[in-house]
Amino acid sequence: MACWLEWSPEAIEDIESIASYIERDSPWFAQIVASKIVSTAESIPLNPEMCRIVPEIGRKNIRERFVYSYRVIYQIEPERVLVAALTHSFMAAVCYNPSFRGLRGIFEKLTLYVKN
Questions:
Q1: Contacts of 88 (CB under 8 A, 6+ apart)
Q2: Cα distance from N-terminal residue to C-terminal residue, the chain
Q3: Residue 68: helix, strand or coil by DSSP?
């Protein structure tokens, strides 16, 4: 199933934030990470169901692919693949820890894109 790739505004914001954060220590590595995230996302439409289902959501059309320590979370639709969010893989574990209640909203923005 080949379709086209689209980035949500939130995912674009996420990649910019990731690059800005890394750039504080290493502009060179920030460029490498951002480029790798983009190239990995661009390969997803070739075989979108290859990656695992996001466990926090549990829907077959919401999947993730790991790039370094980041999760590229995307939604498979009939004509496109929508990159919905990018998160650090550590955040998934934190979301389920009761002492980190403020971080549970990381996956809330995905509900904007999940179709019933």
A1: 69, 70, 71
A2: 21
A3: coil
Edge-first strand listing for the sheet containing 52-53: 4-7, 80-88, 70-76, 62-67, 52-53
What is d(CA 104, CA 116) in angstroms, rounded to the nearest whole number? 22
Average pLDDT of 90-107?
46
**Could you tell me the CATH superfamily of domain 4-112?**
RelE-like (3.30.2310.20)
Biggest distance spanned by C-alpha atoms of the chain? 42
- With cut-offs at 50, 70 and 90, classify the pLDDT of residue 67: very high
pLDDT in tens, 101-116: 433 444 555 544 444 4
Amino acid at 90: F
Where exactly are the structural domains of the chain?
Answer: 4-112
Q: Which of 68, 67, 70, 72 is nearest to 48 (CA)?
A: 72
Is the pLDDT assigned to residue 65 strictly greater than 90?
yes
